[in-house]
Each structure stands twice: as structure tokens, then as C-alpha cells.
């Protein structure tokens, strides 16, 4: 089984590749090759027990997509995207990469005629506007960012290309991933990882919202497990909507910090400062958090058992020096 | 006020143009010019009291769009599409015209920077799958045809281009239009007009489904009135979802025929034959009919008062010889 991970240079793509290498199989079949493709040369997987190749791929260019998605490709993970703030500031980049990039992959599959399995990562950014709580799997998608609109359009295309038999597509709407490894970035959600990650690393971090702020989270480790499970769901079980809400947990900032203290003691929480940031608050206040994922849960996807687990995963998997 | 009707050669575009000419104003402003644009040369409006031009426009070609949508365009009606059966049989045509055609119009507006008002016609084909009844304005769009998927993606783009201020977009999901003038076509819904239209014209017609079959209908006359009203809704009243379900009425075939008999006497109904057609039945059985349009009703759009009205409209507006 040949697997291509587009967006394979990102932290999720890298974690997914390592998890697939560790398993050695997908859907009961031995993995013969993993190709990590990204717009910049992705890192490889050191000491992998099966062939892991790296390739440059610009998904805005159909010829570049054709070089990594071939007649031998059995499974495609499409994780590549420009994120929310980028797509909002650079409208054309977002359209080219998030919408046309997805279309280029789907069109490549259609022209190949091999109907590969494809896992598409969407986002809870597809929700918004005046749609009532709770958000369920039959709620209107009413995105309030270009990123969310492009992801929602991608979902429709993945469903239609699947219905036509051009691809065996599945999509999952990712919760906000926390605790995300690495450094803070310019995303409005960046603090949702950094207020835990930096203190766990012995560094200060600022929380720009109040401790009652609620949002919908999942750990990187569970996200990767869910991405693997998504590829293993029998197509017939997906019914007439191949897009699932990936399960997460709705938590307040206070609950996340208390979980950190329960696992790592009281010291890290003392490194958090509480300077309000109106710009960030006004963006994240519109985000939806009362999200239900019953269908995905029934199909074997899972949320973290608790945020304490999530803190432990960060310490085990990602904390520098571990 | 300069108005461009793309898809202006179709029966709705022609009726809309005549209605706009008869009014002379839109949103309180005098109409200075109407341009009917279509892929084939559209018919003009004879004896119009204001300038009505015709133009060829292939919406799959950005340069062709740029020739009809200019810096002087105040209002765009985008009615052009390849319909359901065509988009299902010719996948590339559907993508090019329904998805990329809509994108080309939106991109033209973005590049102009003049934020014209744009009315986009979507369809109840965006509904489908395992979404529970009733269908409301916050139900998931889960189309089961390529036409529906392309229209749903167009809705997302109209909303996002509007949110960004590139266009003052509005969309309306049209019910099945009946009694549609003209000849039967290859659409699976064709009989929903022909079983009334042909008998009212003194000709036989076959009904391929049972008399209990339910669907969601609107007359051409009310559809045109609603298209005009849609352009006149203050943008602020549309909130964060600029797409409305255009109101219709849910009726059985029996109710439609009884309405015809109430208006036109018992003779036309005797011209209907009842040969079941499994192919047509299996397609239309998946269509949704329990559709609510509360938001559009509150914003001044309307359904037909009764199907008797609808029969009268056909006789007054469209029956040959009237």
C-alpha cells in the first residue's frame, strides 16, 4: 500500500507518518511506501522501518500534483492548507491553495481513474453565523472566514467526487489542536496551545482572553489516531455524507490550566500572565464550541479522555528534551 | 441603474427582464439599461420602454465575463447554469459552467472593486442525504447531484465574496418551477410542468409517478417577483448568511391536478395518462419537499397563495394564443 501525505512537512503530517511507520499497516494491508510531499522539502523519518520518501509538491500546479499522486497511489492524506489568518489576509493564496489545490488533487484522481482513498482535513472554521447551538452533523455550514468557506467548498467537492466514484473520499473537521508543539504563530488560536506549552517548557506565556473562554480541543496524538481510523472506515458506513466532525472536548481555559496543574504541579500555571487582547478576543468570540460529533464517535473516532491525558501526551511526545 | 442578466436567454431571464422593464425601477432607482447576456444570442424585449441590449457571454471565459460585467454594472442577476441531468452526465460541463462560471463572475467583481449587487440562483438540489426533515435555513446542505454540489459551493463563495466586500451578493434557492412554459425537456422534473401545461394546451401528457408524490413548487411569476425583491433587501437584513430559501408550496400531484380542474374545468385532467416510469421515480424519490423558508418570508419573499393562482398565471402569462 502506497500512501502520499500532502502537507507532509507540517507537524501533523510528520506525526501521522511516524504513526503509520510504527503500525506498518493500514486497513489490514502492509504499507509499502510513504511519500511526504510539501511545498518546501519536508523532513524525512529517521530510522523508518519502511521506505519513506520526500517530495516537493505545489498543489496549485496540476503537473506538480501529478508527480506525487500516481496510478500507484492507494491512499492520499490531504493536509495542506494556508491557515485562517493567512487566507484572510491573502485572499488569492487561500483560494489557490485551499480551494484550487484541493480541486487539483481531486481532478488528478478523476483523470487517473484509480479511485484512491483520500482523507481531507477540514476544520471547525466551517461553522459560524446565526446557526443555533448545538452544532451537529446536520447543521448548516456558515463559515465566517475565507479559510472556512474554502474548506466547506472542499467538503462538497470531496463528497461529490466520491459519489461519482472518482475517489473514495472522507473528510474530517479538525477541532483546534492543543497542545500543539513548536513555537507560537500568528494564528488567533495560537495562545490556546502556548499558554500550556510554554509554561510546561518553563517559559512565560500570556492568555489574552478570560479564564471562562470556551473552545473545542483535541490533542495531536488523538488527531493522528483519528486520521488513521478515518482511512479505515468502510465506505458503506459513511452513508451519503463522507465528512465527519472529528471528536473533541469543549473546555474552558480554567479547566485546561487545572488539568495542567494536576499533571505537572502548580508551577507552570504561575508562568501565565493575563493581559487582555481585544483584537484576539473579538476574533475568537465568534468561534463555535458547542459541537457534537456523534456520528464520528459511532464510527470509532475518539476525543481525549480528559485534558489531563492531553497534557501527558505533550510531555511524552513533544516536550523538548523528552 | 445598469442591470446585467447572465442567463438572460432562458425563460426566467426573459421574464425577469420584462418585469424589470414594466417596473422601470429597482430599489427606488430608475433602470437606465438592461443587458441580457447568454451563451447563445438571447432574444431582446420588443417595445421596451428603456434600453435593453443583448450580448453573448460564455461565463467559463473570464474575458467574456469582463465584456458584460463592467465598472458601470450596478446589479448582476446570475441565472446561468447547466441543469441537473446535464451536469450529472457531463461532469466537466457542470464544473466549468456552474462552479467556475460563478467564480469568474465573482472574480470579475473583486477585480473591478465596485462591489456590485449580485443575485445568484441556487436550487433545492443542494438538499439531500440523511439530513432530517424539515429542511430549514440552518440545515446542512448535503447535495446528491453534481449540480447541487456546484450550486452549494457557489453559495459559499457568494457569501464569502460578500463578507469580504467584493460583491453585495445574495442567493436564492429556487423551488421546482411549475408551470414552466415551453416544451418538455430531459430533466427528471419535466413532468411536473408538462402534466399541467400540455393538458391546458389541449394535449396529452404522461405522469410517471403516483398521485401522492409530494414536491416543492413555485410559479414563474412569483419566482420573478422574488428575484426582484431579493435585490431590494437591505444588505444588513441578510445577517451572516446571504442565501435564502425562496418560498414555495409543498403539494401532491393530486392537489396540483385538482387545482387545474378548479380553474380550467375537468377536461384537461382527462388528458393525463399514468404510465409509471421507474427511472424517473427513483430519481425524484430522493428529492426533498419538506422545506421551510421562514427567513425569506420574513424578508418579503412569497410563495403562490394557492396552486389555483399558479394555474391562472400560466393561462394569463404563457398559454399559447393568450
Automatic annotation (TrEMBL), chains A, B:
SUPFAM superfamilies: NAD(P)-binding Rossmann-fold domains (SSF51735). Keywords: Carbohydrate metabolism, NADP. This is Nucleoside-diphosphate-sugar epimerase. Gene3D superfamilies: NAD(P)-binding Rossmann-like Domain, UDP-galactose 4-epimerase, domain 1. NCBIfam families: ErythonDh. GO terms for molecular function: oxidoreductase activity. It comes from the Bacteria. Residues 3-206 form the NAD-dependent epimerase/dehydratase domain.
Amino acid at each position: 500500500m502506497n500512501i502520499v501525505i500532502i502537507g507532509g512537512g507540517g507537524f501533523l503530517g510528520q506525526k501521522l507518518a511516524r504513526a503509520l511507520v510504527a503500525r506498518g499497516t493500514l486497513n489490514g494491508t502492509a504499507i509499502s511506501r510513504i511519500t511526504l510531499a510539501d511545498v518546501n522539502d519536508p523532513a524525512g523519518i529517521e530510522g523508518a522501518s519502511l521506505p519513506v520518501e520526500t517530495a516537493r509538491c505545489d498543489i496549485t500546479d496540476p503537473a506538480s500534483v501529478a508527480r506525487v499522486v500516481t496510478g500507484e497511489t492507494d491512499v492520499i492524506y490531504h493536509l495542506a492548507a494556508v491557515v485562517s489568518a493567512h487566507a484572510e489576509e491573502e485572499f488569492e493564496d487561500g483560494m489557490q491553495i485551499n480551494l484550487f489545490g484541493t480541486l487539483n488533487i481531486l481532478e488528478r484522481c478523476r483523470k487517473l481513474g484509480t479511485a484512491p482513498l483520500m482523507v481531507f482535513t477540514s476544520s471547525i472554521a466551517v461553522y459560524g453565523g446565526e446557526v443555533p447551538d448545538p452544532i451537529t452533523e446536520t447543521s448548516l455550514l456558515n463559515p465566517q472566514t475565507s479559510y472556512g468557506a474554502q474548506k466547506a467548498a472542499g467538503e462538497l467537492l470531496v463528497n461529490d467526487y466520491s459519489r461519482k466514484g472518482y475517489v473514495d473520499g472522507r473528510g474530517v473537521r479538525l477541532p483546534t489542536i492543543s497542545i500543539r508543539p513548536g513555537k507560537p504563530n500568528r494564528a488567533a488560536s495560537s495562545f490556546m496551545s502556548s499558554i500550556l506549552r510554554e509554561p510546561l517548557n518553563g517559559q512565560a506565556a500570556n492568555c489574552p482572553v478570560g479564564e471562562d473562554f470556551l473552545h473545542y480541543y483535541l490533542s495531536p496524538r488523538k488527531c493522528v489516531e483519528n486520521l488513521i481510523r478515518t482511512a479505515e472506515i468502510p465506505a458503506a458506513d459513511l452513508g451519503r455524507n463522507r465528512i465527519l466532525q472529528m471528536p473533541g472536548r469543549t473546555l474552558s481555559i480554567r479547566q485546561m490550566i487545572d488539568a495542567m496543574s494536576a499533571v505537572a504541579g502548580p508551577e507552570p500555571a504561575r508562568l501565565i500572565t493575563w493581559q487582555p487582547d481585544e483584537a484576539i478576543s473579538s476574533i475568537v468570540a465568534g468561534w463555535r464550541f458547542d459541537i457534537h460529533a456523534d456520528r464520528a464517535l459511532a464510527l470509532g473516532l475518539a476525543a481525549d479522555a480528559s485534558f489531563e491525558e492531553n497534557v501527558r501526551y505533550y510531555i511524552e511526545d513533544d516536550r523538548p528534551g523528552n
